[in-house]
Amino acid sequence: MSAFEANFDGLVGPTHNYAGLSFGNVASTGNQNAVANPKQAALQGLVKMKTLHDLGFKQGVLAPHERPNVAALRQIGFTGTDAQVIARAAKEAPAILAACSSASTMWTANAATVSPSADTADRRVHFTPANLNNKFHRSVEHPTTGRILKAMFADEARFAHHMALPAQMHFGDEGAANHTRFCHEYDQPGVEFFVFGQAAFDSRYPKPAKFPARQTLEASQAVARLHGLRDELVVYAQQDPDTIDAGVFHNDVISVGNRNVLFHHEKSFVNQAQVLAELDRKLAAAGGKFVAIEVPDAEVSVAEAVKSYLFNSQLLSKADGKLIIVVPDECRVTERVWTYLNKLVNSGGPIDEIKVFDLKQSMQNGGGPACLRLRVALSEAELAAVNPAVLMNDQLFATLNAWVNKHYRDRLEAADLADPSLLTECRTALDELTQILKLGSVYPFQFC
Ligand code: SUG
């Protein structure tokens, strides 16, 4: 094979906690104030990365960010030394300190939208960091995300890096969580599929009644323009607003695609039949045969999909052309979902194997296997141009496990966020990490 889909998983940061920050994400709000275990969270993520690497898939690591985000606290008026800034925020605005302490960069499906070189006008791989402007704690991610991506994909002849879209609700962008690409082979032109929650400039599109629609049509269109995609190979679809109100805050909670396969729920999109027909037609024009696997509501309800994260799975292509579905343990323990999955892999269809991972620490904040990874389709030559220090192997796995065990706490709750030593611990760990991953200086504490 001369091209691959590499997955870059977010390494969970040392401040992983449950602050109930994401209205519309029912796991996040439901687990507010639960006690978190950052060490276990990071180790759970590393096990997934290593297992997939051992199965022969290309796997990389995306570094976490500096937290608490003292610069963000200063921007909103907290002053003094770093310790004083944290102490004042803890006293006067604990909810804001919690937002500035979130380890939410672990969900790298929201880090950026990525278009492979086969799809773009200038034949480079394009990256647009997501502005994540619907939630304050996530809106502060993109500057550092952009620097880290540049440190990983540095070769300007092969990789193009854009700025995040205007940080405003009209251009709300949540990155690859609302983007999928279909193709015949990874290095052949494919169909890029953008799913939005609302149209900010066009009142004809329905809106959810209860929860926010984070991604706008206008943001998706802007990313497609920036990346130089061809209109005839792009499909836009609106996510069913009722599913947003049921807790499907990103498209990757109700559908997942890989190569020529879209695995999705019956209630994923507005005008679903038309959307599927357009994908079929456009992929055929790109030389592919579209396969839609639709899960009926009668077999798995939207509520069961949200609870189990069935669609927040990864579909990974094996050498024999069949697909593995990577699911969280919550799928195994949700009876009807497990029954469905076992029927699916024995049906003779393209998905013929299940891999289950315990990702409970991340899941309790609404982040499953697919949330934790950013996909980058790369040719052999492009893969060779990626910073090799971020690619998983036995040595990196051992080093990162030791690094986590050395620096991370195994218990973190709201009151702990006021502890100024958490910042010192985080900076010490990240300084070491940038050397392990050979990222250079990417964090404000390293260059300010
Ligand atoms: O943005 N949760 C994240 C989960 C992101 C999941 N990503 C994808 N579906 N791709 C979010 O809602 C919760 C943080 C807290 O409550 O402490 C949080 O940010």
Task: Report what the structure shows.
The protein has 448 residues and is an alpha/beta fold. It has a domain at 1-85 and 372-448: 5-stranded Propeller (L-arginine/glycine Amidinotransferase, Chain A). It is built from 18 helices and 15 strands. The longest helix has 17 residues, at 38-54. It is globular, with a radius of gyration of 20 Å. The mean pLDDT is 98. It binds N~2~-(3-carboxypropanoyl)-L-arginine. N~2~-(3-carboxypropanoyl)-L-arginine is lined by residues 18-22, 25, 28, 102, 104, 107, 109-110, 138, 177, 249-250, 252-253, 365-367, 371.
Keywords:
binds N~2~-(3-carboxypropanoyl)-L-arginine, 448 residues, 15 strands, 3-stranded mixed β-sheet, 35% helix, alpha/beta, L-arginine/glycine Amidinotransferase, Chain A
Kindly state the mean pLDDT as a whole number? Answer: 98
Strand order of the largest sheet: 2-1-15
Count all strands and give the number: 15
CATH class value of the domain at 1-85 and 372-448? Alpha Beta
- The protein's oligomeric status is single chain
Hetero groups bound?
N~2~-(3-carboxypropanoyl)-L-arginine
Short overview:
By secondary structure, the protein is α/β, with parallel strands linked by helices. The protein contains 18 helices and 15 strands.
SSE map:
Layout (H helix, E strand, L loop, with lengths): L2 E8 L15 H5 L7 H17 L4 E4 L7 H6 L6 H11 L1 H8 L10 E4 L9 E5 L6 H4 L2 H11 L6 E3 L17 E4 L8 E6 L20 H10 L7 E5 L2 H5 L9 E4 L2 E5 L6 H14 L5 E5 L6 H7 L5 E4 L5 E6 H5 L1 H11 L5 E7 L2 H4 L9 E7 H6 L8 H14 L13 H16 L7 H4 L1
Parallel strand pairs: 1-2, 4-5, 7-8, 10-11, 13-14
Antiparallel strand pairs: 1-15, 3-4, 6-7, 9-10, 12-13
The chain binds N~2~-(3-carboxypropanoyl)-L-arginine.
